[in-house]
Amino acid sequence: MPTYKLYYFDGRGRAELCRILLAYGNIEYEDVRVSSEEWTKLKPTMPMGQLPVLERDGDMLCKSPVIARFLADTICKH
Predict the structure, then answer these.
(1) What domain count does the chain have?
(2) Residue numbers of the domain that contains 38
(3) Residues 4-29: pLDDT tens digits?
(4) How far is residue 13's CA from residue 18's CA, in Å, rounded to a whole number?
(5) From its phi and psi, is residue 63 left (phi > 0), alpha (psi between -120 and 50) or beta?
(6) What is the pTM of this model?
(7) How far apart are CA 41 and CA 28, in angstroms?
């Protein structure tokens, strides 16, 4: 079973739809809340230097619409 990590700031924002889809699909994930201090260190390691990012077994997806489509497709396949 794949492992998921969702990286975003401590707030709803652009990651909220992704969190809702993960909950709807009963997909276990680690909700990584990034502070502004952590973000300055983490930014160079993130694709396109942006959040939200969904990490699945080491592969990273960025941009909330892309993540949402991926999760919806994953949920529909189950």
Answers:
(1) 1
(2) 13-77
(3) 999 999 999 999 999 999 999 999 99
(4) 10
(5) left
(6) 0.92
(7) 26
